[in-house]
Design brief:
The chain has 6 helices and 10 strands. By secondary structure, it is an alpha/beta fold. It binds 1-O-pyrophosphono-5-O-phosphono-alpha-D-ribofuranose. The site of 1-O-pyrophosphono-5-O-phosphono-alpha-D-ribofuranose has 18 residues, from strand 7 and helix 5. It comes from Methanobrevibacter woesei.
């Protein structure tokens, strides 16, 4: 299982964003081109392990969108995107996102207190994005039934779990060592 995912990650070029070692991969960047078999491997594992008794899938722009789309098609569940674009719709909630190499405002719409949701994103690294998004979702009062970050890099998963008290489901754990992606473990090990 996950053979194409692991091969793709091992082949990821690394670029420097300041001091940050950024891996470039179809899952996290849509570059190089995504082999749909990679997406299928990820979604098959997620469906096998995750409680899908939710009202909505919630994804974070940008690189949570293709994962939410694939999961939605596989499950029939609707999905909503936390956008980097402000709409000014009633009830819209602004969230400040900070990663290891940049920051952005995110905007949450069409989520109501009591809705059961599954949050999905591509990568957790410093944990900054998930910590702020989970905090905002808690403020809205949604019921976070699960959080998927398909790739955990470094100790981001632990940081988010410690900060939020919410378990993070990741599929592959990697590190960037000496300019290369090293696969540390997968959920299927
Ligand atoms: O754990 P963190 O350090 O917060 O990093 C994880 C975040 O970084 C990327 O978002 P980013 O907004 O940089 O890129 P994207 O728009 O391509 O998703 C990625 O999609 C995650 O949301």
């Amino acid at each position: 299982m996950l053979e194409k995912v692991k091969k793709s990650l091992k082949e990821s070029p690394i670029v420097k964003k300041g001091e940050y070692n950024y891996f470039v991969n179809p899952i996290s960047d849509g570059v190089p081109a995504m082999d749909p078999e990679i997406l299928k491997e990820l979604i098959d594992v997620a469906v096998k392990h995750i409680d899908l008794n939710v009202d909505k899938i919630v994804a974070i722009e940008a690189m949570g969108i293709h994962l939410a789309t694939a999961l939605s098609l596989a499950t029939g569940l609707p999905f909503v995107i936390i956008r980097k674009r402000e709409y000014g719709l009633e009830g819209e909630k602004e969230v400040y996102q900070e990663t290891g190499y940049g920051s952005s405002n995110l905007y949450i719409n069409d989520l109501k207190a009591g809705e059961k949701i599954l949050l999905i994103d591509d990568v957790v690294s410093t944990g900054g994005t998930l910590i702020s998004v989970i905090g905002a979702l808690k403020d809205i009062g949604v019921d976070i039934k699960g959080v998927i970050a398909t790739i955990e890099k470094g100790d981001g998963k632990r940081v988010v779990e410690t900060e939020t008290g919410i378990p993070i489901f990741s599929i592959v754990k990697i590190d960037v060592i000496d300019g290369e992606v090293v696969i540390q473990s997968t959920i299927e090990d």
